[in-house]
Amino acid sequence: MVCVGNLTFGGTGKTPTVIFLGAWFRARGLRVAILSRGYRAEGPEGNDEARVIARHLPDVPHFQDPDRYRAGSAQQDNFDLFLLDDGFQHHPLHRDLDLVLIDATDPFGGGWCPPGGRLREPLSSLSRASAVVITRADLVAREDLGDTMREVRARTTAPVATARFAPACERDLAGQQVLVACGIGNPGAFVRTVESLGGQVASTRFFRDHHAYTRDEALALAAQPLPVVVTEKDAVKLEPLWPKDGASLVVVTIEFEFVDGGDAVMALMDTVAPCP
């Protein structure tokens, strides 16, 4: 089992990382399944993250259950490898590797656990990590990234890599004024992604992470004159509600890419599930 987790509340890019790893293991001929707790599951397709994963990995089963030990135990004979999505704090399950993601744009959640900050557990917990990946490394200054890497390396001897989420958009945003709408853990990072595509962010509408959009909210967004730029996680919930005569709904997709140090991380993956 390979766990993809983090230390903070909020988005660090676990979903695109799980998609990247799932595709990598599948390409090696392994029977892969994903285990997650699930969040506000809605109907047979499950929650927003599950729907995005299904778009990219339609042949990889995704089991959602708050009791991930139960779900994994029931399926353990059917698969070669489980990817545990958001499970670094889920201690009952044995895992072979713990991959911990840290968002370079907000690496340590203020440095404190609640109520003073957004850490799920102290930074010393990085000592349990098998590898650390600092995501969105391309969105911060080199000096800030260096400071984050020094903080991480002071707490773990595990390999430390950097990564980015390469954005793609169905529409050329260069020079266009847009409204950015999203219900994700780190909306500021998404604004920077839209700006990196050339979009001029004239307005924003942020919702809580995993927000379940209502018809009225979709209609209100669609009624304003600017193109509405959303993440893929938001799109899977907004598209069924979007009126045909509304503003353009523009979806930005992202793909996980290593920037530096990826070879060491993927060498660890080889030790868990070598090519059959």
In short:
The chain is an alpha/beta fold and 276 residues long.
What does this structure look like?
This protein has 276 residues and is of the alpha/beta class. The protein has 2 domains: 2-166 and 256-272, Rossmann fold (3-Layer(aba) Sandwich); 167-255. 29% of the residues lie in helices and 25% in strands. The protein contains 8 helices and 11 strands. An 11-stranded mixed β-sheet has the order 3-2-4-1-5-6-7-11-10-8-9, sandwiched between helices. Helix 1 (14-27) packs parallel to helix 2 and helix 2 packs across helix 7. The longest helix is centred in the first third of the chain and has 14 residues, at 14-27.
Low-confidence segments, ≥5 residues, pLDDT <50?
41-46
CATH superfamily of the largest domain: P-loop containing nucleotide triphosphate hydrolases
Strand content: 25-35%
SS content category: alpha/beta
Strand order of the largest sheet: 3-2-4-1-5-6-7-11-10-8-9
| Main sheet specs | 11 strands, mixed
Gyration radius, rounded = 19 Å
* Second CATH tier, the architecture of the largest domain: 3-Layer(aba) Sandwich
Shape: globular
Report the strand count: 11
In which range does the helix fraction lie? 25-40%
The helix count comes to 8
| SSE string | EHEHEHEEEHEEHEHEHEH
CATH class of the largest domain: Alpha Beta
CATH topology of the largest domain: Rossmann fold
First-last Cα distance? 16 Å
Number of domains: 2
Oligomeric state, counting identical vs distinct chains: single chain
